[in-house]
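A.,

Following up on our hallway conversation. C-alpha cells first:
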C-alpha cells in the first residue's frame, strides 16, 4: 500500500512558527495546525507527532532571516524539506489580506500542487565561508561610504584635490596638510579619516582570513580553476563560488545565467516582443563580481604575467577554455560597442557569457565518468 503524503507549510519567525497541513490528493483538506516554538526541540516534536501516524511528511518554508536551521534539523531526522524562493511564490492579484496562518496554508497548498521553487541549500561549511565573504563585502561598502562622506565634506568647503588619483599615498599626504579655521571642522576631518582607516583595516583583515581559510574549503580547487579566466582573480572567484556553489550542478549554462539574474527581462504578448534590462534575480554579490571581471575584456586578448601565474597547476583543458573565453569575449565587446551599444550594456552581455565559460570550467575539471 502506497504511503500517504502530508504537506506541511511552515511560516517561520524568530520566536514562533505557524504550521499548516495539506492532505494528499488534489482535493485534500488544508487546515491549520497551530503555532509552535522556532526551536529544534519543537520541530522534532512536530515531525514525530505527525510522522507517527504513518504518514510521509514533506515540509516547506520560505527562505528568510532565520536561515537554514530548520531544513538541516529535518534532514537529520530523515524528513523531506525544501526552502522556498519567496520571490517565486505564485500570488493572486486580488489577495489583500496576509496573515501568518494564511501564509502557512498557502505554502502547504502550493507545495502539494508542486508550484513552489526550491532554493539551493549550502552545507554548514559552505555557509560559513559565504558569511565570511559577505562580511568582507559589507566592509568594502562601509569603506566606500566613509570615503564618500569625507569627499562630500571637503567639497562643501571647497577643498579639491588636483593631484590625480585619490586614496593613494600622495592623496593621504595632501589630506594631512588640510586645516580649517574652526576647531569643530578639524575634528570632523580627523574623524572621517579615522573611519576610513578603520574600514580599511577591517577589510584587509577579512581578506586575509579568506585567504587563510580557503585551502581547507572543499571547493578550493574550483576557485583555483576559475582564476584561469581573465578578470576572475581570487576575490571574484570566491564571491561567485560561495554564492552559487558548484556551477556544474546546473544542466546548462542558460540556467546558471538566469539563476544569477544576468538574462534580459521580457514582457511579450502575441506579435509584440519587448525585452528590458537584466532580471537581477539571485545574488547581487555574484553579479557584481562578474561585472567587475567583464570590464577586463575591453582590451585585446593576451596572456599577461599575472594571468599565467594564476594558471600554474591548472589542467590544460581549463587553460584552453580560458583562452577561448578571452578571444570570444574581447571580440564580443568590440562588436557590441561598434554596433552602438553603451559600454555598460556591452559589459553586462560579456558578463553573461563569462558565466557560461565559468560553467564550462567547472565541468572540465570534473573527472570523466
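Then the amino acids I'd put at each of the 369 positions:
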Amino acid at each position: 500500500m502506497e504511503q500517504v503524503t502530508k504537506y506541511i507549510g511552515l511560516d517561520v519567525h524568530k520566536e514562533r512558527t505557524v504550521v499548516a497541513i495539506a492532505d494528499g490528493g488534489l482535493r485534500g483538506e488544508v487546515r491549520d495546525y497551530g503555532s509552535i516554538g522556532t526551536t529544534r526541540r519543537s520541530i522534532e516534536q512536530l515531525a514525530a507527532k505527525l510522522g507517527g501516524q504513518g504518514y510521509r511528511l514533506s515540509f516547506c518554508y520560505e527562505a528568510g532571516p532565520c536561515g537554514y536551521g530548520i531544513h538541516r534539523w529535518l534532514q537529520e531526522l530523515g524528513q523531506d524539506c525544501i526552502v522556498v524562493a519567496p520571490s517565486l511564490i505564485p500570488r493572486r492579484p486580488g489577495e489583500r489580506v496576509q496573515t501568518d496562518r494564511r501564509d502557512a496554508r498557502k505554502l502547504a497548498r502550493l507545495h502539494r500542487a508542486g508550484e513552489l521553487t526550491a532554493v539551493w541549500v549550502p552545507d554548514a561549511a559552505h555557509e560559513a565561508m559565504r558569511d565570511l565573504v559577505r562580511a568582507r563585502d559589507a566592509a568594502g561598502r562601509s569603506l566606500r561610504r566613509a570615503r564618500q562622506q569625507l569627499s562630500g565634506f571637503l567639497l562643501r568647503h571647497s577643498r579639491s584635490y588636483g593631484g590625480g588619483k585619490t586614496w593613494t599615498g600622495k592623496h593621504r599626504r595632501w589630506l594631512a596638510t588640510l586645516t580649517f579655521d574652526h576647531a569643530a571642522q578639524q575634528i570632523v576631518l580627523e574623524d572621517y579619516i579615522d573611519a576610513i582607516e578603520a574600514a580599511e583595516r577591517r577589510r584587509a583583515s577579512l581578506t586575509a582570513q579568506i585567504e587563510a581559510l580557503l585551502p581547507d574549503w572543499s571547493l578550493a580547487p574550483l576557485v583555483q580553476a576559475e582564476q584561469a579566466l581573465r578578470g576572475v582573480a581570487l576575490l571574484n572567484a570566491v564571491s561567485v563560488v560561495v554564492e552559487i556553489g558548484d556551477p556544474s550542478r546546473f544542466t546548462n549554462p542558460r540556467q546558471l545565467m538566469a539563476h544569477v539574474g544576468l538574462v534580459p527581462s521580457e514582457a511579450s504578448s502575441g506579435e509584440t516582443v519587448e525585452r528590458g534590462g537584466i532580471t537581477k534575480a539571485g545574488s547581487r554579490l555574484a553579479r557584481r563580481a562578474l561585472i567587475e571581471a567583464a570590464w577586463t575584456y575591453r582590451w585585446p586578448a593576451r596572456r599577461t604575467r599575472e594571468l599565467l601565474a594564476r594558471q600554474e597547476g591548472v589542467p590544460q583543458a581549463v587553460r584552453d577554455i580560458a583562452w577561448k573565453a578571452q578571444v570570444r569575449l574581447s571580440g564580443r565587446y568590440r562588436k557590441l560597442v561598434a554596433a552602438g551599444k553603451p559600454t555598460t550594456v556591452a559589459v553586462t552581455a560579456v558578463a553573461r557569457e563569462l558565466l557560461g565559460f565559468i560553467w564550462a570550467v567547472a565541468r572540465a575539471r570534473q573527472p570523466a565518468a
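The CA atoms of residues 58 and 221 lie 35 Å apart. Curious whether your intuition agrees with the design.

B.
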